[in-house]
Design brief:
By secondary structure, this protein is α/β, with parallel strands linked by helices. The protein folds into 2 domains: 5-131, Rossmann fold (3-Layer(aba) Sandwich), CATH 3.40.50; 156-319, 2-Layer Sandwich (Dihydrodipicolinate Reductase, domain 2). Helix content is 31%, strand content 19%. The strands form 2 sheets. A 7-stranded mixed sheet has the order 8-9-7-10-13-12-11. Strands 2-1-3-4-6-5 form a 6-stranded parallel sheet, sandwiched between helices. The longest helix is centred in the middle third of the chain and has 15 residues, at 155-169. It starts with a strand and ends in a 16-residue tail after the last helix.
Length: 351
């Protein structure tokens, strides 16, 4: 049996770090040998996550992030830290010869100017932007296999891109007509305590936020524009659901001339046939979050309104797994020569 490859997580205490830990503990080809957190340095994994106390990695001591020490221990490192923090750490790890999967937005946008405009942070590792591979498995798997640095896609963009790319790449919809209405569970806001995401604030309520200024907008426009072969702009409206995890995105587009319902169904059926984690639902069925919770699946439902000439696409993903940790693990699998699905044969979590 092949010896598992040593990996580390920088930023173990967030929701994405915790989800990645859940997945790594069952992965046949990776061994978690390093976990970092400045706030929790010196504690053991079992102290923070007692649900994993019976796992061999439970005794692993959490350390402060140190690129040199990580290089001595690991072959690949997952950066589960906020934007602005990841870019320097990634550069240091790459200089030490490691491979890096970055959860932040620091390397998702190819333009430093656009990054600085939307994130109000100077990009100090511009030379790495052209090297970083955008890690949407369905479109960039071959490039990921050769990558040292992968920019793990955002959760909202993952749900949007998988829903619109099949139609957009075949010219079946008008790129200038895209309206995106997305709803996320509260884990998408991170684990840091904030008034707006406290239980009593979100329970029994529902609201929009970040309209016209959400930071995932340029990422969505960049990737959809690449598929369309030109720059485009979208209307992106995120909402906060009073649930733990999951993203439901509803997207609207005008049909291109001569587009038929049959051609749309064929485009999406082909896409789902080519990609194991994409599931096209039968006509008349629409996605539900409970069916994808804890998995890598993206469920897609289509509705064509012949009266208005518009297409409605609905997608459902788990924001922590498909939209973050699971997708990062799939990227790491490809980067290290393993099957993309290694450790990711996941059954839906029971609510």
């Amino acid at each position: 049996m092949q010896t598992p490859l040593p990996v580390g997580i920088v930023g173990i205490t967030g929701y994405t770090g915790m989800e990645l830990l859940r997945l790594l503990l069952r992965h046949p080809g990776f061994e978690l040998v390093a976990a970092t957190s400045r706030q929790e340095e010196g504690r053991r994994l079992k102290d923070l996550f007692p649900q994993f106390m019976d796992q061999p990695a439970a005794e692993l001591e959490i350390s402060a992030p140190d690129p040199k020490r990580l290089a001595e221990q690991c072959r690949l490192v997952f950066l589960a830290v906020p934007h602005g923090t990841a870019m320097d750490m990634a550069a240091q790890l790459l200089d030490q010869g490691l491979q890096v999967v970055d959860f932040s937005a620091d390397f998702r946008l190819r333009s430093a100017r656009v990054y600085e405009e939307w994130y109000a942070t100077s990009h100090v590792q511009k030379d790495l932007l052209s090297e970083a591979v955008y890690g949407l498995i369905e479109t960039n798997a071959q490039a990921v296999k050769q990558a040292r640095l992968v920019a793990n896609p955002g959760c909202y963009p993952s749900s949007v891109l998988l829903g619109l790319l099949p139609a957009l790449t075949r010219g079946l919809i008008d790129p200038d007509s895209l309206i995106i209405d997305s709803k996320s569970g509260t884990t998408g806001a991170g684990r840091t305590a904030k008034m707006d995401t406290l239980f009593c604030e979100v329970y029994d309520s529902f609201k929009a936020y970040g309209l016209g200024k959400h930071r995932h907008t340029p990422e969505i426009e960049q990737e959809l524009g690449q598929a369309a072969g030109r720059e485009l702009q979208v209307t992106f409206s995120p909402h906060l659901l009073p649930i733990n995890r999951g993203i439901l995105s509803t997207m609207y587009a005008e049909l291109a001339p001569r587009t038929t319902e049959k051609s749309l169904q064929a485009a999406y059926a082909d896409f789902a046939r080519e990609h194991d984690w994409v599931r096209l639902l039968p006509p008349g069925s629409l996605p539900e979050l409970k069916r994808v919770r804890g998995t890598m699946f993206c469920d897609i439902g289509l509705v064509v309104d012949q009266r208005t000439g518009r297409l409605t696409v609905v997608t459902a993903i788990d924001n922590l797994c498909r939209g973050a940790a699971g997708q990062a693990l799939a990227n790491a699998n490809l980067m290290t020569g393993q099957p993309v699905s290694a450790g990711l044969a996941l059954e839906p979590l029971v609510p």
